[in-house]
Amino acid sequence: MIKIKNINTFIKLLFIFLIGVLAVECKSDTKNSQEVTEHNEQAQVLDTFAFSSNPVKVPEQEVHTLEIGNKAPDFNLPGTDGKYHSLSDYDSAKVLAVIFTCNHCPTAQAYEERIKSITSDYKDKSVQVIAISPNSPLGLLPEELGYSDLGDTYEDMVIRDKDMDFNFPYLYDGDNQKVSLAYGPAATPHTFVFDEERTLQYVGRIDDTEKPGTTNGEDLRNALDKVLADEEIEEPVTKTFGCSTKWGWKTKNREKIDAEWAEREVTLKESSTDEIKELIANDSEKLRLINVWATWCAPCRIEYPEFVTIQRMFGARDFEFVSISADKLSKKESALDFLESTNSAVENHIAVNDDKYALIEAIDSEWNGALPYTMLIEPGGSVVWRYQGEVDFLELKKTIVEHPMMGRVY
């Protein structure tokens, strides 16, 4: 212990100590205050972006694609970055490339990396690339999603942007499609290149080969180079191959297909333990998704309709969904009633043996018996994905579409 003989010295030392403590606290408070301020500013940005998607039916009309020499129509659209974007926001760019694209289309997905590459290569050349999704979610059928894990909603666009780390603005026009109707994209992707006066100089394809890795966006790059050099583009208009734009008046087709699916016969096959084992062995040539469920299992009933949607999405490809009811055979009628209510027009099974532990071992020795239980099985019986409990369907769809037997592009 330090002995202080002089009281005045003690007071001085105490004063210096208190000043030091206050200085440290002040510095800490300043840092905390800065962190709170930054947090509040971020919260204010999110609060000011009060956008909630609300796609509506659009009256059927003739769509005209912009012609060379036309001016760029104005827009004010929500982006996946949580901000609104207008044409005037990019006044400083000498060249503006507006590319109409989307999440679900295999052709559009095939060009995503090329669009990123072009954006990166021209970012220091006064070129601004903007992507707009023109599709109405109302006009999109589950059967059109066979090459994607996502639809074309704004919320799905945010996910795709994050998954792909887009380096360009990705804007949503699916609510009323006013901007898309003004530009007139025939398909996704469809590119429009404007000069400094925002006069259209090129409209058409990105390049002439869809398969990734074979081309590098030569048509678009040539157009950008020519406009930057104030030179004439030899072929300013090209055809564009891709998925047709999903206009908001195509809802009648969706209603028709939904009605046709609802009219399909739903059956429930009584299957022995050995037959269940054969399902798991998967001697087919398809990727097989199996869901084990029961009528008394509330989570099973809640999530089950999404499995039917997955069948509609991927059923035209090398994929099939099979359901296995864990209900007692005496409850077959109740199980069938539920399947009919969900339009489960797939291969449905119910075990004839009420021995649930025999059923568990027949399905998967790694399964402890809790419902629901889901497995994704390759031809030959190799389980590539299994999950006990309520499924994360985004994860499941991504697992399916990215399997080597499937894929996102043709």
From TrEMBL:
Transmembrane segments: none annotated. PROSITE patterns: THIOREDOXIN_1, THIOREDOXIN_2. It comes from the Bacteria. InterPro entries: AhpC/TSA, PRX-like1, Redoxin, Thioredoxin-like_sf, Thioredoxin_CS, Thioredoxin_domain. Keywords: Cytochrome c-type biogenesis, Redox-active center. Residues 66-229, 257-405 form the Thioredoxin domain. It is found in: Cell envelope. The keyword Nuclease does not apply. Its main location: other. Pfam families: AhpC-TSA, Redoxin. The keyword Metal-binding does not apply. CDD domains: PRX_like1, TlpA_like_family. This is Redoxin domain-containing protein. It comes from Autumnicola patrickiae.
